[in-house]
Design brief:
By secondary structure, this protein is α+β, with helices and mostly antiparallel strands. The chain is built from 1 helix and 4 strands. A hairpin with an 8-residue loop joins β2 and β3.
């Protein structure tokens, strides 16, 4: 955790996708201490979260964050591109470089 303020939690690790965060409110001697875990779906590059909080955070922990995975259409376009390059290279190799002269 990069830092905790009254309503913001800053993380030193950029978060992306499904992210699990543990929070603790309170840190006082009465029964108002609360710990909770959150599962969030965050945009790539998120570095902090903001929560409406009157009691104040005393601790936060980042448990896991998942990197973005390309969509199936992205993989398909990449494979089509590689296939096109392979086809062009194979076709270029089959063309003869010797000159033919014919006499009539």
């Amino acid at each position: 955790v990069g830092g905790v303020t009254a309503s913001n939690i800053f993380f030193s690790t950029p978060m992306s996708g499904i992210t699990y965060i543990g929070l603790h409110w309170g840190n006082v001697d009465d029964e108002n201490n609360v710990s909770a875990f959150f599962k969030l779906n965050l945009a790539p590059g998120t570095t902090h979260i903001s929560l409406d909080n009157s009691q104040g955070f005393s601790n936060a922990a980042l448990y896991s964050t998942v990197a973005a995975v390309p969509e199936a259409s992205t993989w398909a376009m990449m494979l089509v591109g590689l296939g096109g390059v392979a086809w062009a290279l194979r076709r270029k190799r089959q063309v003869s470089t010797t000159a033919r002269i014919s006499f009539a």
